[in-house]
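Worked example 3 (structure in, sequence out).
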């Protein structure tokens, strides 16, 4: 009797790349990648054309003497050395630093105050009214806001001086006084931007765990202790965001000054960005204006990096 080994079926051959599943998966991946590239292309192109390109051009022009009419002439670091001798630049930087400090304190301070008030147990309709009222100025173009406030600040016909004199005070030359011209700019900047920061704080306050707050009250903590020990640490990320955005925006303040005071009297209220525009488009000294713009960019970047460096010491990540 002859024994034969049982026949075993051979495993099927793997499908080839052409027409098989791996080939279809590869095609799908390529299509998905192409779709992603197409969606990101407008942002990348916009960044290259409107951000990186002008930044590189400004860096190059800052090393040249260029008046638009003639070809740029390379002069090295002369424009940067010139900045240390420019007293007007020092004045405008001083004004800008004042605007930044006032914006950080006033905008975020009032925004947090309004957010806490709105976050109280109010009727929903009343809450919507308050949110809209505080946020509406942010939706209006800053030029129009400044024109309205320019009328309010008028020395003889402005409503602010009307109430001041009605209460027995003296009229203030808000727009033409070295003492008050910067105050008027700060008031307009605060009034216009406080609504956006307030909405960020409101969203953060609504995420604070209510059971944690109630537990603190049961333990005997008063409202100030709850706000300081629980609420502030829980909204620290929103605070960091608002402070960062406020600093960057205040360093670039421009439109409100143009409309309200035109930088005057003299340079009493002039900002760095306004001075850059004057040097570039009134004096056609594009090389020096580019050097100032580059230094302003580096200062903003340095301040932002310092903020992110210090972020770990006071921002709650949970």
């Amino acid at each position: 009797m002859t024994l034969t080994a049982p026949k075993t079926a051979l495993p099927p051959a793997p499908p080839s790349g052409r027409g098989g599943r791996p080939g279809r998966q590869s095609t799908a991946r390529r299509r998905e990648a192409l779709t992603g590239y197409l969606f990101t292309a407008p942002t990348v192109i916009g960044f290259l054309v409107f951000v990186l390109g002008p930044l590189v051009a400004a860096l190059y022009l800052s090393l040249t003497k260029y008046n638009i009419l003639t070809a740029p002439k390379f002069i090295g670091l002369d424009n940067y050395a010139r900045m240390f001798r420019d007293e007007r630049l020092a004045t405008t930087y001083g004004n800008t630093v004042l605007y930044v400090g006032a914006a950080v304190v006033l905008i975020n301070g009032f925004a947090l105050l309004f957010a806490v008030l709105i976050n109280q147990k109010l009727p929903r309709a009343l809450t919507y009214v308050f949110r809209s009222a505080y946020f509406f100025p942010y939706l209006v173009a800053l030029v129009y806001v400044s024109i309205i406030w320019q009328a309010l600040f008028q020395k003889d016909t402005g409503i602010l001086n009307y109430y001041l004199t009605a209460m027995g005070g003296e009229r203030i030359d808000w727009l033409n006084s070295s003492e008050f011209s910067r105050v008027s700019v700060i008031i307009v900047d605060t009034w216009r931007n406080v609504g956006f920061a307030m909405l960020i704080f409101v969203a953060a306050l609504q995420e604070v765990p209510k059971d944690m707050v109630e537990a603190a009250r049961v333990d005997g903590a008063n409202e100030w202790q709850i706000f300081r020990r629980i609420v502030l640490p829980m909204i620290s990320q929103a605070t960091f965001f608002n402070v960062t955005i406020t600093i960057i925006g205040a360093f670039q303040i421009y439109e409100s000054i143009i409309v309200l005071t035109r930088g005057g009297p003299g340079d009493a209220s002039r900002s760095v960005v306004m001075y850059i525009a004057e040097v570039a488009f009134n004096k056609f000294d594009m090389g020096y204006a580019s050097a100032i713009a580059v230094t302003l960019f580096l200062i903003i970047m340095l301040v932002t990096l310092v903020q992110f460096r210090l972020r770990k010491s006071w921002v709650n990540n949970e």
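Notes: DSSP finds 13 helices and two strands in the chain. The mean pLDDT is 88.
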